[in-house]
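Subject: Sanity check before I submit

Could someone independently write out the structure tokens for this chain? I want to compare against mine line by line before I put it in a report. The sequence has 691 residues.
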Amino acid sequence: MAVTAPSSATLPSAAASRTGAAAVTAALLLLVAGFALVDITQGTASVGASEVWKAFTGRADPSDASVVIASRLPRMAAGLLVGAALGMAGAALQAVSRNVLASPDTLAVNAGSYLALGLAAVSGVSLPLLASSGVAFVGGLAAASVVLGLSGLGAGTVRLVLAGSALLLGLTAVTEGLLLLFPQQTVGLFAWNQGSISQSGFDGVLQMAPIGLLGLVGLLLIARRVDALALGDDAARGLGVPVRSTRVTAVVLAAMLSAAAVTLAGPIGFVGLCAPALVRPLVRRFRGFSRARAGLPVAGLVGAALVMGSDVLLRAIVPADTAVAVPTGVVTSMVGAVFLIVMATRARDTAGAAAADRLRIRSRAVFLATTAVLVAVLAGVTIAAVLLGDSKLLLGDVMNWAQGRAGQTTTFILDSRVPRVPRVLAALLAGAALALAGTLVQAVTRNPLAEPATLGVSGGAALGAVLLVTTVPLASSWSVAGAAFVGAAISSVVVFGLAARGGFQQNRLVLVGFGVATGAAALINLLIVLTDPFNATKALTWLSGSTYGRTLADAVPLVAVLAVGGVAAVLRRTELDLLSLDEDTPRLLGLGVARGRLGFLVLSVLLTATAVAAAGTIGFVGLVAPHAARALVGRQHTRVVPVAVLLGAVLVCTADLLGRTVIAPAQLGAGMMTAVIGTPYFLYLLVRSRR
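---
Independent answer below. Compare away.
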């Protein structure tokens, strides 16, 4: 076979590419240096550029020099180190997974580190910084291993990110539970989790820098093998590359870089996602960046520019006293959420939507028996939720109390239990509303992974409610419900509007929802920091889905909305059945698909918003209850709706009961308990649909 020599035109092109790559690298270095120089001139102290220059030349006042040396320079160094580490970690994870949406955030690496550090804090052992980095490394690596093991790998798939995002929700719920149960041992951990590059001296930077350097050197040593993985596993094996060990080594090194960044500054959100995304256009233009040996350092430079740029922008547009309270991680998380949404709409989901449930037909007797059992269980759970406490009571005691014949002790105990009724009622109604909302969403989108929490609707509702509560503390129940509805409506318009362009059957719908939920969470944290920075426990209680302190007035909006939603779902049950089949059958029968879908989605948003206003953020109920209902009574919505509503009520009421009795007198929110249950179920659905 004749080999054609490269033409003379090819060589200048290659040379031009190398020259362009060098020019771009130099420009990035100048950009990072510029951000760094501006950053050290910003702060609360009146130390500007001239004072900084005098500090460098040894002519500054001792107080000004102390500010620059002890605070400004360490903050700048931490920003550079954290940004570079996260940028390289994200580039490595995307390369070995062949997934443009992979990053330390979306693969739950940061969440795993957060939980590991929380467990270490609860143990009461005081760890030095290096040991804390090791704990964070183990937690992050374990989380990444779970996600990679459950989701599988493949070009263009979003399944890996779905698994990581679901695991993130579960791990974060467990960690927040630790913060509520052990406030003394975990003091400061909530603020740390928002991510801030502020430092007191160079100790942390000097200890983490060798770890970052070790991770970079390790990635550069396996760069050729990483490049071979881009050709596909079979092609890489044909070139003699050990695929499995290369992938494991790259993930371990990426986890090491992430652990160093997390230990130093807390989770700085989505830098590992955005930095490689910004490098990809450069790769298409300059071939020199297509190699991992050049692409990884460039991704690190872009990551450093993102962190430093975010810090500079924050301090430029926000007053200095306020900017100190706003963590850098909140800013990068909001930017990263937008990136995630945009990239999710463009990502090609080769796996398609999750497999729908097989058509199940159950007899009427099975439906009636299931309903009867659930009604009995619901009654038992309700009674237990009202009566269980530190003193045992029998039903006979309750009957005597109702007739006025109970003893003084029994009367005192039951009188103290009566105020629980609104709380129990709020849990029951919120669970029923979320289950009904999940049933409607899954039917009209034909996506079994869809539910209010994973679609960002609950996050939008929580943002609206928290915004009103933090600005108008004495707002009424109807006002909070209205604010929650506005937030849920805005988030749902974004999610459903973007997902409709690619078809509701795509996993893209859920991924866009995760992006919206992430952005809403960042804004909620920003509100908490700006309005009530010393009351993180109050915020965690709300976000954990607590029914504490609820009154009958809080339950009234839920009763009204649930009644309307239940009647509408029953009356239009046939339309729900048809919409859940496919796109063509309803049209052939003369149904307005767009109008019907919009009506059901608006109803689900209203149900979700009202539930969040009454009971806080409770996740995965809208996922588990409809699935379990279809498994029990088939796919006909005339049966699915009542069974799902009963299951949702039982699930949330049970979660609320366990949260306040298992570890009494301490309490955990119902949302945390449902997240612990729902996360494994969501991951199971992903694995099952992959098979």
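---
OP: Matches mine. For the report I'm noting this point. The radius of gyration is 27 Å.
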